[in-house]
Amino acid sequence: MAIAGWPWRWDERTRVMGIVNADPDSFAGDAVTTAEQAQWMATEMVAAGAEIIDVGGESTRPGADPVSPDEQVRRVVPLIGAIRAVLDTPISIDTSSAVVAGAALDAGADIVNDVRGLRTDPDLAPLCAARQVPLVVVHNQRGRAGSGDVMADVRAGLEESLAIAAAAGVADDRIVVDPGFGFGWTPDENLELLRRLPELAALGHPVLVGVSRKSTIGTVLGDRPVGGRLHGSVAAAVMAVVGGAALVRVHDVAPTVDAVRLVDAVLRAGRGPS
Q1: What is the CATH number of the domain that holds 23?
Q2: pLDDT the model gives residue 272
Q3: Which of 100, 162, 192, 216 is most buried as measured by Cβ atoms within 10 A of its Cβ?
């Protein structure tokens, strides 16, 4: 897979994606509102080892109000432009809207990250195909009837998203899959999803996992508030890497990078990151 003109081999090391959130309704309480804040945050993340910066302008927490494409564009485009002005690190746009994705790509983004798995905007997959950009498809269980088997539902949902991408002409080797930790699951189901993550390898795509600061971590740790979930988030990221994740999406880059580098050193025959 080529990202921002560079070939990426997902078997080299675990990649860490840092989150820059432009929605004040973010559950994590980390929203940025100015280009200067975005530049500083992204620069700090890259210095700590992040290899992708993920920018989003719409909260996806349960019960969040939808944000129009125009408002998302207003929020994210200046931030992406500011980050691109100081960094050549790949940038992903976290959106389910083709309008937002197109504007973000024009501003300097390189990747589209759709938490709704291409199921809400029929123009998004054709846009990704036409622009020949990498695409993350996320399984979102919200509003979907479950079968009683968490991983069977995740795989079925991702297979639907992969079919939509293929029909639009998105190259198969440009797709990353995300099981959608926290998107419509109970805490027990989220833990099962993490435990059974190796089963996603059968889909033949790199796996991204986003567990950072999510409510299941707080529940497991005794109703811990968002600000107290760092250690649990790092532990969950480690479990994801052990389970086969090639990429983890996180708020707290520095401690996560340290943790996954150690995991890589163990899992990759002592070679560690290159």
Answers
A1: 3.20.20.20
A2: 41
A3: 100
> Which regions of the chain are under pLDDT 50?
270-274
Q: In what order do the strands lie in the sheet with 175-178?
A: 175-178, 135-138, 111-114, 91-94, 52-56, 15-21, 247-250, 208-209
Boundaries of domain holding 221: 2-267
Which residues contact residue 3 at a Cβ distance below 8 angstroms, ignoring those fewer than 6 apart?
52, 90, 110, 111, 134
Residue 1 to residues 32, 206, 240, Cα–Cα distance (Å): 30, 10, 21
| Residue 272 is assigned to a structural domain of this protein | no
41, part of any domain: yes
Q: Of residues 61, 249, 268, 271, which has the active-site annotation? A: 249
268 is catalytic: no
Alpha carbon distances (Å) from 212 to 27, 60, 120, 191, 193:
11, 14, 25, 13, 15
Within a domain: residue 123? Answer: yes
Is 214 designated active site?
yes
